[in-house]
Amino acid sequence: QVQLVESGGGLVQPGESLRLSCVASASFFGIYMMGWYRQAPGKQRELVAQIDSTDNTIYAQSVQGRFTISRDNAAKMVFLQMNSLKPEDTAVYFCNRVVEEWEWGQGTQVTVSS
Question: Quick one: residue 89, left, alpha or beta (phi over 0 = left, psi -120 to 50 = alpha)?
C-alpha cells in the first residue's frame, strides 16, 4: 500500500509564496505521472498540476504561471512551488498519482488571507 505524506502548508497573505512537498512510498516512483490536487470547503477535489515521468507538466488555468510542479525521483518526492498566492487558492492540497490514484494522504492546509 502506497503512503503519501504532504507538508509545507500554512497561513500566508495574498501575494506570498509557499512550497509544498510530498513523499511517496511507491516502488518505481519515477514511472508514475504525479499530480497536486486541492479541495476547497464545499467544493470537489480538483487537479491543479501534473508532471509525467519525463518532467512534462500541465497546469490548471487557474494556477498557470503562478505554480510550478517538480519531482525528485531518487527521493520519491514531488513539489509544488506556489507564488503570488490568492485567497481563492485556499484549500487542502494533496498529491497523488494521476489516474488510478493511490489511497489519499492527509493533505496539507493552505490558507491565503490578509
Answer: alpha
Nearest to 7 by CA among 106, 103, 91: 106
- Report, in angstroms and rounded to the nearest whole number, the Rg of the chain calculated over CA atoms: 13
Work out the average pLDDT over 40-64.
97
CA-based torsion, 44, 106, 92, 81: positive or negative: negative
Inter-CA distances, 103 with 15, 34, 62, 82, Å: 32, 13, 26, 24
pLDDT of residue 89: 98
**Residue 109: left if φ>0, alpha if ψ -120 to 50, beta else—which one?**
beta
**Three-state secondary-structure class, residue 88:** helix
State the pLDDT at residue 90: 98
CA atoms within 13 A on the CB side of 94: 20
Span 7-40, pLDDT tens digits: 999 999 999 999 999 999 989 998 999 999 999 9
